[in-house]
Structure formats: C-alpha cells, structure tokens
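Sample entry (83 residues):
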Amino acid sequence: MDSKKQKIKKVWQGIVVSDKMDKTIVVRVDRVISHPKYKKKIVRSKKYKVHDPENKYKVGQNVKFVETRPISKDKKWIVLESK
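Predicted structure, serialized as tokens:
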C-alpha cells in the first residue's frame, strides 16, 4: 500500500486588479455570504498574488488559478487560464 495520494486542488476564479509586478498579478476573488442574524447577502472579497510567468494577463480579465508549491513569501498560486 505504497501508492501516493493526490491532493485535490481547488480552482479559484477572480478578476485581475493589478499587473504592475513582474511575473505576478493580484486577483480579487469575491464570495457571497449570508449574515447570520439578518440573512442579508454580503459580498466578501480576498486578494491573492498569482504567478503569471509570461506577463500576459491584464487588469480587468477573468482568470482561473490553482494552488501550487510556494513560489515566494506570498505567491502560492499559478494561473490556469483566462475566461
């Protein structure tokens, strides 16, 4: 029973908000949650630094990215594709 287990990697989708760094883009991922008491829908967002080796993604594009090995202190994500 020496088989390696594949870790399931979640694919995230978001909008590029910055492309000023070399080989790095900042992607904002929005999620909608419901307030626990008032049940109103609230939009929460988080920004991720994503590795873009070819510098081809620009501000405003929709991109999909996935977790990978750490590339730097903050970069643990790599771009899969643009939508």
